[in-house]
Amino acid sequence: MSDNCATCGEFNLERFEGETFTVQYSGAETTVAGLSGRRCGGCDEVFFDDESARRYAAAGDDLILNERMRQSRNIRRIRRKLGLTQAAAARLTGGGHNAFSRYERGEATPLPAVVNLLHLLDRHPELLKDLV
Ligand SMILES: [Zn+2]
Q1: What range defines the domain where residue 114 resides?
Q2: Domain boundary among 67, 93, 111
Q3: Distances in Å between the alpha carbon of 96 and those of 12, 57, 100, 108, 114?
Q4: Distance 10 CA to ligand 1 centre (A)
């Protein structure tokens, strides 16, 4: 291939085959082996072949899904530990009346402030009485 880098415009794309890349998301990571494509000698940008791009993106999607499921389970665990209904937890954190139902099914991602409050209450459940 003699075309130029879409990122920096240099003309020195070099072919690579069978490389392993690491995908990271929110502290979790996974590796994808056997990827091929071209790498720019000017800016180091990587342009995967179609199949490699699909596999790399799928690994990232899996990480996001796993993280969302992990967070959903954790939110349900903390809410139950505090003895709150989903509606009461939503009143406490300012979400809509069905916010926790959606968080716990992984259909919505809570704001960091909600997650942080739940983590604090997980460690210090006695503070709940100061909030409600
Ligand atoms: Zn480049």
Answers
A1: 82-132
A2: 67
A3: 53, 32, 8, 12, 13
A4: 5
Residue 74 lies in a domain: no
64-77 confidence digits (pLDDT tens): 999 889 999 999 99
Inside any domain, residue 8: yes
Please give the distance, rounded to the nearest whole angstrom, from the Cα atom of residue 15 to the centre of ligand 1.
Answer: 13
The alpha carbon of 52 and the centre of ligand 1 are apart by a number of angstroms equal to 19
Residues 59 and 9 in one domain: yes
Cα 37 to middle of ligand 1, angstroms: 14
Q: Which residues of the chain have pLDDT under 70?
A: 1-2, 132
Q: How far is the CA of 26 from the centre of ligand 1 (A)?
A: 27
- Look up the pTM and report it: 0.69
